[in-house]
Amino acid sequence: ATPTAVMVATGKGASQGVLIKGGNALEKAHKVKTVVFDKTGTLTVGKPEVVSAVLFSHFSMEEFCDMATAAEANSEHPIAKAVVKHAKKLRQKFGSHTEQVTEAKDFEVHTGAGVSGKVGDKTVLVGNKRLMRTLHVPVESAVEDYISENEQLARTCVLVAIEGKVAGAFAVTDPVKPEAQVVVSFLRSMGISSIMVTGDNWATATAIAKEAGIEKVIAETDPIGKADKIKELQLKGMTVAMVGDGINDSPALVAADVGMAIGAGTDVAIEAADIVLIKSNLEDVITAIDLSRKTISRIR
Ligand code: ADP
Ligand code: MG
What we know:
The chain is an alpha/beta fold and 300 residues long. Helices cover 45% and strands 23% of the residues.
């Protein structure tokens, strides 16, 4: 495209809430054959809520929530925010009568798995089954049952281990964005296939993908795994777009021919992307590709 055509298209995009950072992305977007979507915060609203909590130990629900909150206090993850919010509500509801521990010591992030820290003299882990496995915490059958029950309902389970034993768990829901299914089917009509990649577990991921009308799913992957999937598709000769919102999506956003960041996403993702969907609406994935198609066809 000529510099003028790029400028016109960029201006048009901007007026529609699609920020195109350069001519290169605009040139490539019309050739996109596959769109890879992140799950949390991209296909889903990204504001998970705790909808269930259980104890597998002698702790009171309040103590349990406090310890989980302390461990999650420094995490930016949307699940962490859900846990903290739930614990706060619980305290208000029952009138707190104990002093709240606010922050864990030795806080550590386990990317795509959870967090850990020391709350008082106790080691607390908050995360998925993978985190428990990695840190040698056994997951008993009662816990397994709770997990599979909830995953079938498209919920993500958050396990909380205290001193090496699963003390309880939360289940969180994060609804699929209302426009997701329409966007996926419209892309299909444009000859573009959709794939979902996520760090979340297979059962939850599959349930969410189904709601969005996506058939291809890659779950339980880490940030590098997301980028590797993009490269694998490119090796097959495909032009690939990646849509994501998190720090964990940035390697994939960089690897993709066209990286698109959700406007409400993290700064790191926005910086890594070629195109920013300011309104955080998935329909703008189509707006961007359409804009590129029109710009290119006008020139040729
Ligand atoms: P996604 O790819 O869907 O954005 P992530 O890679 O960020 O997901 O995380 C993958 C999984 O790791 C989450 O679904 C969750 O089970 C677990 N996880 C990550 N961070 C946390 C946290 N701070 N608290 C609890 N669980 C977490
Ligand atoms: Mg995400």
